[in-house]
Design a protein that fits this description.
Structural class: alpha+beta
Helix content: 25-40%
Strand order of the largest sheet: 5-6-1-7-8
Number of strands: 15
Oligomer: single chain
Order of helices and strands: EHEEHHEHEEHEHEHHHHHEHEEHEEHEE
């Protein structure tokens, strides 16, 4: 039976989410990513691309190319929340799907055309995602993952393309060789130096010539250029870890600042656990010094998602790890060994006040964003990115530490 593979891509995902949060950003040049000198562009709107801006570019260079662009640091928690919304819709509607990144999915629709046309079915699912999430989405449909992915790229922005069985080579032939997955800048330059520009030229070459030029990768690129790909859709499974890290604009030795940032990170990840009904049993802290040496420590703990349990343990790991008294370039936290479950009440330590506090904090975060309530010590950290603030300029709710 011939395969039918759907590739789905959320167009300029981070930019699209930011525009949902702030309608004034519609149709304006927008850059999302690190805002300091060391920052890079995580995503850019189509309006900036005419200036030569692209993702992965240093933010400083992007702002020089497009000085009128709005620059937003972004919020990983917010993007994950919107990605999860799309994931749930796809999970409901397709028998087998793969989530290859926060904004990219594959689905195996093989055999479904016995009951409905797969193109019609994919189109209706796309319409539902747009309606329920407000996010633009493009898709490609063909007999394999590679052709579908290329088709999605050609469909953008916010459109769809189907490549019928047997027409894969014809579809790929006029495209630039750079459109083939696996052809990066270095490989592209090698092929251009050989006089190759269109995929059609690779299709007409003997397979062994490409293999001699690029080795094993040459063989893969030749097959992909000819629309040949047997890569299976890998079934989606729940993530086993979550993490966050921050690279500083200037290396620091300020221990108070470092601990404040770690607390803010822990609060954010703990909230993500509770929102996803997850518990962690292993935590780790990572430090990278100014000489680029990187160290980490981890600790197994009873399953939990509670800030007041996780924060002291994170700080304890940091104290054990930070002993070089060198400038720190990066800090990071990772929670792993995740399982499904809700926070279990500790009858010996938890109070009704503590449990009510978590409920109240998470209710505020669910409604107003994951940085709308935080501890006072974390106020200056800016570690989790820009907060979407629905309070019309009012500051977020601040929790001060209180001794019992």
């Amino acid at each position: 039976m011939s395969k039918t593979i759907l590739h789905i891509d959320l167009d300029t995902f981070y930019v699209s989410v930011e525009r949902l949060l702030n309608r004034e950003l519609q149709n304006k040049p927008l850059l999302v990513g690190g805002t300091g000198d060391r920052g890079v562009v995580a995503a850019c709107s189509y309006e900036t691309r005419g200036f030569g801006v692209h993702s992965g570019m240093p933010m400083r260079m992007a702002k020089e190319l497009c000085p009128e662009a709005f620059v937003i640091r972004g919020n990983a928690g917010t993007y994950s929340k919107h990605s999860d919304m799309v994931t749930e819709i796809i999970k409901e509607q397709v028998p087998l799907f793969e989530k290859s990144s926060i904004d990219e999915f594959y689905a195996d629709l093989t055999g479904m055309d016995r009951f409905f046309g797969t193109y019609k079915y994919a189109s209706e699912m796309r319409d539902r995602i747009i309606k329920e999430t407000g996010l633009p989405i493009s898709f490609g449909l063909s007999c394999n993952k590679v052709v579908s992915k290329v088709a999605t790229g050609e469909a953008k922005p916010n459109n769809k393309i189907k490549v019928d069985k047997g027409l894969e080579k014809l579809f790929l032939a006029p495209l630039s060789i750079k459109k083939i997955p696996m052809v990066g800048d270095k490989t592209y330059q090698i092929l251009r130096n050989l006089g190759l520009r269109q995929v059609k030229t690779i299709q007409e070459m003997p397979m062994d010539v490409m293999q001699r030029v690029l080795g094993k990768n040459g063989l893969i690129i030749w097959k992909r250029s000819n629309g040949i790909d047997n890569t299976p859709v890998i079934p989606f499974c729940e993530r086993k870890s979550i993490s966050t890290e921050r690279t500083f604009e200037r290396d620091t030795i300020d221990v108070v600042k470092l601990k404040g940032i770690l607390i803010a990170m822990t609060e954010n990840l703990a909230y993500q656990l509770r929102r996803g009904e997850k518990l962690t049993a292993c935590i780790s802290v990572k430090l990278r010094y100014s000489d680029f040496n990187t160290y980490s420590k981890q600790l197994r703990i009873p399953y939990t998602s509670a800030d007041h349990i996780l924060i002291p343990k994170i700080l304890s790991l940091f104290n054990a790890l930070y002993n070089r008294r060198l400038l720190v370039r990066l800090v990071g936290i990772r929670f792993s060994h995740l399982v499904s479950g809700n926070y279990q009440i500790n009858l010996f330590e938890d109070t009704e006040e503590t449990l009510n506090l978590y409920h109240a904090m998470d209710t505020i975060r669910n409604r107003y964003g994951d940085r709308s309530v935080l501890r006072a010590v974390a106020m200056g950290s800016k570690s989790i990115g820009r907060m979407h603030n629905p309070f019309n300029g009012k500051p977020p709710v601040v929790l001060a530490h209180r001794k019992r």
